[in-house]
From TrEMBL:
Gene Ontology MF annotations: DNA binding; DNA-binding transcription factor activity
Pfam families, sorted: MarR_2
Keywords: DNA-binding, Transcription, Transcription regulation
Matches recorded under PANTHER family: HTH-TYPE TRANSCRIPTIONAL REGULATOR MJ1563-RELATED (PTHR38465), HTH-TYPE TRANSCRIPTIONAL REGULATOR MMPR5 (PTHR38465:SF2)
Domain HTH marR-type positions: 30-89
Name recorded for this polypeptide: MarR family transcriptional regulator
Length: 165
């Protein structure tokens, strides 16, 4: 079945409600509001990509809002640009293995948090209450990082055994 045919069978109002609901959850979790809406719209698109004009029309937002959201999503490595063949228009696309890649980036963040907290514990004095808190926080991030490596390996193993359609 072609993408246009599958899209035609969708309840567009239900899709719009899903996009806004998921975007709301992402916003509540700390993501930028417009970035969350654009991300959710891309996630809901069968092609996992849309042009700026398509995003603006779908979400009823300005081209400037789309541009700002795409800038944010590109910075956090959730979206990338592709030039449409034979056109001057860009398409904004979700990365393949989106969640794996996005959370893989979190591993680097955890490592940076751990390092700065360990440095902070030394600066604050490891025997002070503030230094002990910083050291405990560093240990927490080290623990998360160790556990996260196993989680990502299990996910990779699972998706290799059961590839998605």
């Amino acid at each position: 079945m072609r993408e246009e045919e599958s899209v035609a069978k969708r309840d567009e109002a239900a899709v719009a409600r899903y996009v806004e609901r998921f975007a709301g959850e992402l916003t509540d979790a700390g993501m930028q509001r417009m970035g969350a809406r654009v991300f959710a719209a891309l996630l809901a698109a069968d092609s996992a990509s849309m042009t700026s004009a398509e995003l603006a029309e779908s979400l009823r937002i300005s081209p400037a809002a789309v541009s700002s959201a795409i800038g944010y999503l590109t910075q956090v490595r959730m979206v990338h640009r592709e030039r449409e063949p034979g056109s001057r228009r860009d398409r904004y696309c979700l990365h393949d293995e989106l969640w794996y890649e996005t959370y893989g980036e979190r591993d680097k963040l955890l490592s940076r948090f751990e390092a700065i907290l360990r440095d902070g514990a030394q600066s604050l004095g490891p025997d002070t209450p503030a230094g002990a808190r910083a050291l405990e926080s560093a240990d927490f991030f080290a623990f998360l990082q160790e556990e996260f490596i196993g989680v990502m390996q299990r996910w990779r193993s699972r998706t290799t055994k059961h590839p998605s359609p």
